[in-house]
Automatic annotation (TrEMBL), chain A:
Transmembrane segments: 44-61, 73-97, 117-136
Protein name: YeeE/YedE family protein
Classification via InterPro entries: DUF6691
Keywords tagged on the record: Membrane, Transmembrane, Transmembrane helix
Highest taxon above the source species: Bacteria
Species whose genome carries this gene: Lichenifustis flavocetrariae
Pfam families attached to this UniProt entry: DUF6691 (PF20398)
Automatic annotation (TrEMBL), chain B:
Family named by the database record: Belongs to the TsuA/YedE (TC 9.B.102) family.
Keywords: Cell inner membrane, Cell membrane, Membrane, Transmembrane, Transmembrane helix, Transport
Stretches that traverse the bilayer: 20-42, 54-76, 82-102, 123-143
Protein name: YeeE/YedE family protein
Amino acid sequence: MIRNVLIALLSGALFGAGLAVSGMADPARVRGFLDVFGHWDPTLAFVMGGAVAVMATAWMLKSRMQKPLSAAAFAVPSLGLVEVRLIIGAAIFGIGWGLSGLCPGPAIADLAFEPRSALIFIGPMLLGMAIQRFAFLRGRPSACAGQMLARSRKPS
Amino acid sequence: MTDVGLTAMPSQGLIGGSMIGLASALMLLALGRIAGVSGMAARASRLAADGAPWSWAMAFVVGLPLGAALIAAVVGPVQTHFPSSPAILIVGGLVVGFGTRLGNGCTSGHGVCGLSRGSLRSIVATAIFTAAGIATVGLMHLLGVMA
């Protein structure tokens, strides 16, 4: 349905606009927030505060709705348990975030301002996603790491 | 003030943050999905087995630079200071791509959508990637590595 594609486009555009307004499109500002032992910049905390406050209201509204306004059903992740995989993945992401000052949203939004640098980041980012996907497919030699992690989750 | 001379901007942060919250609220309440950028990017490039329909993911991803460009056109220039070293961009990209997929989310999915929902997984993930980011920036300062 074309209407839902336009809603997704609007959501992405509003998200990208928010990144640009808040200063979060600038990798140096994001690294400034992470630089707590140096020249700390608190701006990201205000961004997160504003976004979380609005989204908390949205979750409240969602709990009173049977289905989304324009789709058949809600498809949100279940509130599962914390696994080893989640912890390791978040730690690896955090290292890359600190290194570059970039996470996926700003990197893609920055195609509007610095397409060359943004692409030097986004290309390898997609490659990293592909490596993760194929390393964790079952029944492949490269699935070794994935299986080790899966086993570590089960009580022996 | 940061290393490149940026000063804190709390009000723009709050306004921009609320826009990001509204964008995520629209995705949730209209389409029933989480506005997680790593998931949407993986889905749009056909690197995720499940998730939003491809056309929604692609539209969301395309919208990001369009919205950012609109702000630059209407409000004024948007500053960006990228790492000057391609090596840092390449390694950073690889690590961010791998880590966000392994950990099922990034700053938007776990940070904005998960924290506001009170999800334990997202609270833990956000605490860990923030701590890892702080440690990485601190270590780079200690070693004298410039981004």
